[in-house]
Design a protein that fits this description.
The complex is a heterodimer of chains A (200) and B (224). Chain A is built from 10 helices and 7 strands. Chain A has 200 residues and is α/β, with parallel strands linked by helices. In chain A, helix 8 links the parallel strand 5 and strand 6. The longest helix of chain A has 12 residues. The chains are: A alpha/beta (200), B alpha/beta (224).
Chain lengths: 200, 224
């Protein structure tokens, strides 16, 4: 049976949330942080919050965002797990392809992301926000079993379409809603990789 | 790497304390801390949680971040066999199963682990029979050849009882059996291994355990 491992990106592979890191360039740190936390905690719907945050960060040149994203700390044990299984790991992120494609290409993992319109080094706007559930269904076409790993409300759609759900507390505790629908909860990358490697 | 599953989802109603049994204050910490301390460092450890899972996870994660929690949302209507089943479904290969209500002696447990490392079969943990309520283990030539239910003449004749610890190898659990020993009984005979441990089911058990620890007859493992 082939298994696909679907990972969230922000706070699951990166040990820092992306948008607050980009916000450090703009003088809008507190505003983006507040919106990010409100989204993580399910106070604001992901899509409207994400569009708003992207609007606030649109003035940062895309090349600068790539540099920032490249410098983010990563959960290296999980990255190593992914790189050892290039045929069966996927990143499913609500973040923008224009911002995260460089990082994910370097990791060498196929991904599904939200789409943005760009003009050279400028971000024009979000054109579509990823439906994580639909992304998992596309992965399922090639795999018999789906293992989903995430930490936020945005990962619920991924969980609803997965066979095994792991809530991961890497950067912050997973939201209670996600924990309540999880099969397993891991509070460190060591635990997560052990759990993934032990699967039949 | 050794793998362990601790079943700690239950309510522990016979103890009459409004808390998960695994969070019972013992020594300088909680029962679950001493269970985790007895395991070899670097092991793959799963704790099955249910009753007040958030409290259990929050407590354990502080000191033991590398533990994985397995959720049993149906803890109130299922037995610890179901908890073990849930964990075992996501583990390829053998593991040691441990009831979440045991205080375990370090030295005896270390010997058990050494035995597990070279074993190709399951191993049944036993202790000298203490009460009539326990599940008896009929041991012959170092192997458990039968289990004896509480209240039966066979149980009264047993020298040993099933202690709630087993090395599970080549045994596929089903979720519909009530007790782990019933699952193991289908694979007998299996090697028996004596592991010093105390089960905490009732307030009397707890008082006895505290006394055994005070007298130095049960030595708690060192906490990290």
């Amino acid at each position: 049976m082939s298994t696909a491992f679907c990972f969230d990106l922000d706070g699951t592979l990166t040990a820092r949330e992306l948008l607050p890191a980009i916000a450090a360039e703009t003088g809008l740190v507190a505003e983006i942080e507040a919106l990010t936390m409100a989204t993580i905690n399910g106070v604001l719907p992901f899509e409207s919050s994400f569009r708003l945050r992207c609007r606030l960060l649109a003035d940062v040149p895309i090349s600068r965002v790539h540099a920032i994203v490249s410098g983010l700390p990563l959960f290296q044990d999980i990255i190593a797990f992914i790189q050892a299984r290039p045929q069966s790991c996927y990143v499913i992120t609500g973040n923008l392809d224009a911002w995260v494609s460089g990082l994910l290409a370097r990791i060498g993992v196929p991904f599904f992301a939200s789409q943005a319109a760009t003009d050279g080094d400028r971000l024009l706007g979000v054109t579509s926000v990823l439906d994580k559930g639909a992304a998992v269904q596309r992965v399922r076409a090639d795999h018999a079993r789906i293992v989903a790993v995430g930490d936020g409300v945005g990962d619920m759609a991924m969980f609803e379409n997965a066979d095994l759900r792991i809530a991961y507390a890497g950067l912050h505790p997973p939201v209670p809603m996600l924990v309540a629908s999880a099969d397993m909860v891991c509070t460190s990358q060591v635990a997560l990789v052990r759990a993934l490697e032990a699967l039949p | 790497m050794m793998r362990f599953v601790i079943s700690a989802a239950g309510v522990g109603s016979r103890l009459g304390m409004d808390m998960p049994k695994c969070l019972l204050p013992i020594g300088e910490a909680r029962l679950i801390d001493y269970q985790l301390a007895v395991l070899p460092p670097g092991s793959d450890v799963r704790i099955v949680v249910g009753f007040r899972e958030q409290e259990v996870m929050a407590h354990v994660a502080q000191r033991w971040p590398d533990v994985t929690f397995v959720r049993n949302p149906a803890y109130a209507s299922t037995s610890n066999t179901h908890s073990l089943y849930l964990a075992s479904q996501n583990i390829a290969g053998p593991y040691a199963a441990i009831d979440g209500d045991l205080i375990i002696g370090q030295e005896g447990f270390d010997r058990f682990i050494e035995r597990c490392r070279t074993s190709t079969t399951s191993i049944v943990g036993v202790v000298p029979r203490g009460t009539e309520e326990a599940v008896g283990a009929v041991v012959a030539d170092g192997s458990v050849v039968a289990f004896a239910r509480p209240g039966t003449p066979e149980q009264a004749d047993c020298v040993f009882e099933w202690c709630g610890i087993a090395y599970v190898s080549g045994v596929e659990l089903s979720s519909n059996r009530r007790f782990v020993f019933e699952e193991l009984s289908r694979h007998l005979p299996l090697p028996a291994f004596e592991i010093p441990c105390l089960e905490i089911d009732t307030p009397q058990d707890l008082r006895r355990a505290v006394e055994e620890i005070r007298l130095g007859r049960m030595r708690l493992p060192a906490l990290p």
